[in-house]
Amino acid sequence: MMTARAAMADESIDIAELIRQIRQGQPAAAEQLFRFYEPEIRAEIRYRLRSSAVRRVVDSQDICQSVMISFFLRVGAGQYEIAEPQELLQLLLKIARNKTNDAYRAQLADKRDVRRVQSLDAAKEVGQRPGPENVPAEAAEMTDLLEELERQLSTQEFEIATLRRQGFQWDEIGEQLGESPEALRKRFHRAIERIGRNLTPWF
Question: Could you state, in order of their start, the residue ranges of all structural domains in the chain?
């Protein structure tokens, strides 16, 4: 299986094209991107979960799934501009770090004693784990989530999302809509964040 680091050394991998296909709602592109980057994301999460006490309450596979759902929804809605494999890898690793920290802080906020909680990995049956073989189904599910997210956008927000999927930059969108590009970008991103959090706890 080709990983992200192998992809970065392979000039035939066109990240910008994969992003374009994801924005068009093509699950195969999401599956391909997931397979490239999943090993690096999992490695980063495992590094952050060095403490055995933390690993008892924070599941690395769940966090990895959270990272990819969050990324696919945002990129599908036109929130990110990414053209290089290294840039994408760094973004995904940053999301992974934030998700891992958030998951552990949530456990602490619940005042749970991490030394006494049964390991989540041990508590789940192997057949229930969302491993790489389930990536196509997960990619299709993310497409459904993106469609629902877009249904909840306002008329102007949906127009912005459509223009972003078509490759328009923020200055071009601002000119078309007669507003400040920065104001449109911030308003659009706030809408995506709000709706995304309502749709899924993974956002």
Answer: 4-148
